[in-house]
Each structure stands twice: as structure tokens, then as C-alpha cells.
Amino acid sequence: MIFVIKDKCVGCGLCVKACLFNAVKLVDKKAVVDEDICTLCGACVTACKRHGAIFIQNKAREEVDLSTYKGIWTFAEQRDGKLMNVALELLGIGRELADNLNIPLSAILLGDGISSLPQQLIHYGADQVYAVDHPLLKTYQTDIYAKALVSLIERYFPEQMLFGATSVGRDLAPRVAARLKTGLTADCTGLSIDPEKKLLVQTRPAFGGNLMATIVIPNHRPQMSTVRPNVMKRMEPRTSRTGKVIQVKDISLQAEDIFTKILQIVHDSDKTVNLQEATIIVSGGRGLQKAENFKYIRELAEAVGGAVGASRATVDAGWIPSYHQVGQTGKTVHPKLYIACGISGAIQHLIGMQTSDIIVAINKDPNAPIFNVATYGVVGDLFEIVPALAKTCREKLGKNQ
Question: What average pLDDT does this structure show over 220-233?
Fold first, then answer.
């Protein structure tokens, strides 16, 4: 909290000028802070250093009994009764972490009519599945999903909680973390265990991908992370695996808990933009020179049966919609084949595609960074190479069909 010592305040107004949020005013020549606006940035404290009339007192941190928290949970995201790939990827890394700590791995499944899904989660590595099957959970909505998940966490006390960094996970995880007053590391690309402190070590790109930040949550539970899709490898399913399915039916969920109403769900009919599911992606970069030249990328993608991707530069230029973007601020992909055409290889783009099984780079600059991660590199004019490649693929694949 922030306090003003009236006897020391001389009404100089330096604190008013220092506050960027207009939270400090002079009333009867004394500083008054509006706590509803104040962000506790400390600018006014620094400005009043000479007189010492303003100070911030931090609240004592509530002690948490860490010993009550056990196990690793993963959020098993599903849509229309089908598990998302990231749900299975989380079980892969979750299994590894749980085995290192010798603790159980649980999957949390929320939805309506999801009775067939728990066994799939067990086959992919879960020891047990907490399932909440409720009509109000049929379609993802922030408020009701957050209430259900927080209720489960406050009942069973997991030590770690992992979400996919999808549109759902990025919306849900911070809501849950805020209600539980715990920490959250977003967009992780690596997870491990500190062998001495038994803490979850979370790694994510920072400063535009120029360095990797390592983050731990030592004093709060659960330790929460969102993990980028297509970064972690899922386990091979084993139908012989057995586990426990816990049907949680006594969570109170009411229609009044939902503050928004879904009027209509519109599914994108463009099958070429499902980048995170694509096994082949053909991406275009600044080397295309203008929006019209994306026709070459589309022609090659159609010839090889792939999806169309793009670099951030082309999206920022308005050449192609943002849902085609691959990279740190776009989609993280892991196709079997990634063809980069006219993409130099900025670090933020590499973060999104460098785990592809095979990378083919086409660029006229032999020193382009993309060649450092490419499996095969072609130095030349993409306007000659890409059409020729598309023609050859159509001929070869046409003969094989």
C-alpha cells in the first residue's frame, strides 16, 4: 500500500508531476493518492525523496504450505469432443517430469459428452483423469471453465499445472493463476526439474527471441505454465496402459456463472490455414516483394498438398492474413516438411519452425540465416525455382496417383 505522511508533505507538487497515471493530486496543499488508479510504480516516492513524505509498504506474503501440493496436472483441451494435439503433447512432457519426481500425472478434462476421451488420455501417459462432464462446458467460455478448474485445484492441490499455449490456454491459464494467486510462465518452449529444489524450471524466449529466460515459482502453488503447441513430443499410445478415471459431479456450475453468450460459431472453411496440424507447409517471406506474388506459394502448396505459411514481415505488410503467420508471435509448427521461400530467417521466425523434420530453404542470399537450420538449401531466384518446383511436383505426384 502507498502512504502519505501529511506532516512531512510541503505541497511542492513534484509527486504530481512524476505520476504518469494522474493518481496523485494536491488537496489543501497536501498530496493525496487515489489508490484505485495508483499502480505502485514508485515514481512519486522517488520524486519525494528529499522530504520522505511518501512511501510504499508491501503486504506480507502469505505463507503457503507447499507440502500439501502433490502431482502434475495437464489441461486436456478438447473441441467438439476431439482432443487437441497439444493435450497429448503435454502428457508427453508431463510424463517425463512426473517420472523425474516420482509423482502421479493427471489430465483434467472439461466438456459435455466426453465419456470416450479419458481412456485416450490414459493411453498417452496419464495415470488418472479428472473429468467434469456438464452441459455448460460444451463450448469453451472463460468464466465457467475457470470456475470449474479452480474448484478442482482447490480441492486436490496439484503441484504443477500445464496448459497448451493455444487461444483457449492463453485465455484460461492467467484467469486461473490470478484467482489462485500463483505464478504463470507463458509460451514455454522447455520444461525440466531442478533436481535439488524439486522446482519446475520453465524456459521461454525473451526480448524477441534474442535470449532464453529461465523462470521458477518457488513460493506459490501450483506452478503454472502454458506450453507452445508442436514443441513437446507426445508419447506413442499404449492401449495396454491402465489408469483411474475420476468423474467429478459435485462441482456447482450455474448458467449465472457465464457472463457472455455465444450467438454463433463460425468455422473457417479455408483448409489451408490449419498450420499446426499440417504435415507440409510452404511459407513465403519478404523476398516475394508484393502480395500478388503469394500466388507462387499457393501453387506450390497445392501441388504438394500442404498449407500456406508466412513470415511476420509479410503479415505486417498486409500481404496475407495473420493466421498464416509462423513464428514467435504466430504459430509454432512441426511439419514433416517446411519449405521457406524468400525468408531470411529472423530469430522470431526460426523459433516457430526450426523443429520441423525437414527444412528446405530457397533464398538468393547465400548468407541468409535460414540456411543455418535448413536441411536442404537452394540459392537462387525464387520466382524461377518455386514455379519449376510446383510444376515438377504436379507431374510426379500426378503420375503416382
Answer: 88
| Residues 36 and 77 placed together within one structural domain of the fold | no
Rounded to 10°, the helix 382-400/294-304 angle is: 20
Q: What is the pTM of this model?
A: 0.68
> Which of 257, 285, 302 marks a domain boundary?
257
Would you state the torsion angle of the CA atoms of residues 254, 260, 263, 267, taken in this order, to the nearest 10 degrees? -100
Question: Any alpha helices (H) in 141-282, and if so which ranges?
Answer: 142-156, 167-180
Q: Do residues 367 and 393 touch, judged by C-beta distance below 8 A?
A: no
Helices 142-156 and 167-180 meet at what angle, rounded to 10?
A: 50
- The residue written with cell numbers 495508483 in the block is 38
Percent of the chain with pLDDT over 90: 56
C-alpha–C-alpha distance, residues 277 and 369, integer Å: 26
Given a contact cutoff of 8 angstroms between Cβ atoms, the answer to whether 127 and 246 are in contact is no
Q: Say how far apart CA 84 and CA 89 lie, in whole Å.
A: 9
* Full residue range of the structural domain in which residue 231 is found: 66-257
Average pLDDT over residues 296-308: 92
pLDDT at 73 over 80: yes
Average pLDDT for residues 32-46, to the nearest whole number?
89
Single-letter amino acid, residue 110: L
Is the same domain home to 168 and 52?
no
Least Cα distance to 325 among 304, 346, 305 occurs for: 346
What is the per-residue pLDDT across 191-204, written as a single tens digit (0 to 9) for each? 998 877 888 999 88
